[in-house]
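Budget justification, computational time. The allocation requested in the original proposal was used primarily to generate structure tokens for proteins on the priority list. As evidence of use, we reproduce two of the resulting records. The first is shown immediately below.
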Amino acid sequence: MGASSDVARIQPAWARFAEEVERPGRCRFCAHPRVHWDGWAERTATVRVERRTVHVTGIRCRRVRCAACRTSWRLRPSGLVPRRHYQLCVVAEAASQHLFGGVAQQPVADQHGCSRRTVGRWLRWIADCADPGALGSQLLAAVGAPVLPRLRALAPRLRALRDAARRKLLERAATVLQLLEALGLAWGLEPPGLRGVIERVLEGRDRIPSYRAPLIPELARRHPLLE
């Protein structure tokens, strides 16, 4: 089965969401109760479907507008994050291939249809989007046990890097990625945890933290026991 058949699996579900989604009862920005439909918007996305990275076009999103503050926003189906073409399922897979499989960034980029520089930006974003201590605290609370899961080490070729700063960044990215995966499983979310957890904590927002300022406040609050 090719990429076209993979796309055909998800397009009907996303189309149904656009047709059937209910209009919000109030504005997400000012909480005013008068919200109107405001047409449609189309976008594209690169996502993971059945272990394959595919490019999807013509994704229709209903747009709504507040009658008071006049702010508009789009209603998106689950798994489609705002203002990002490459979805977090793709980011998680690419990062895992590099961090744990030891695959060089260029082959990873070739497989997912992006540039080597983009893969590097994803790794830095993952490393800085959350605090490992805060994730550990939330994971302990979710599973009700005092022991964190055993984490996988970086691929041997990355552990051997002479650039200490680079190695430290990759180690942190690997830790954050795995803790998000464990937290997603503890919360009963569909993997990957990078997508599931971030989608949950940022539910309803019109953007996710940028590459320049990646920190997600909800994933950066330490528990006193972890200080």
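The second record produced under the same allocation is shown here.
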Amino acid sequence: MEFFDVLNSRRSVRNYADQPVEDEKLDRILEAINRAPSAGNLQALDVYVVTSAEQRMELALAALGQNFMAQAPLSLVFCTDADRSARKYGQRGASLYCLQDATIACTYAMLAVTALGLSSVWVGAFDDEKVLDVIDVSKSHRPVAMLSIGYAADEPRERSRRALDDLVHRV
């Protein structure tokens, strides 16, 4: 798919077909994540692949009852690695750069998902502690985004966007 077609066709999907994501497609998504830019090329993030039905249900509960997360056959959890970034950039790395690294990686994943004919939705509303318990990760990591991935059960509608003259300010 051509890049601007990917941008124009990406939608947030909350209704998934009962169809697994092929391993080859998951591998390509993970490769895209690995290509995402990061501060100092430190890649101060970790990504957790969640496929078990039980853990996806627990993530849905941790995400304040967003049950589509249990319906999607796959979820990725993006966590910061503040210590990795802090070693080079100090407090700014720990509080900002690792957060940017994780969210850029999630964006790359979201666009790769679309290019592969899959659908996703970015999930940012969740209880951090519960998510860490589900993925069984140290409290030194901070979950900042989850991406539910699968085949859309129906065609999502296009949503309106702000006009560029309202969004962009030339200085």
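A brief technical remark on that second record: The chain is about 45% helix and 15% strand.
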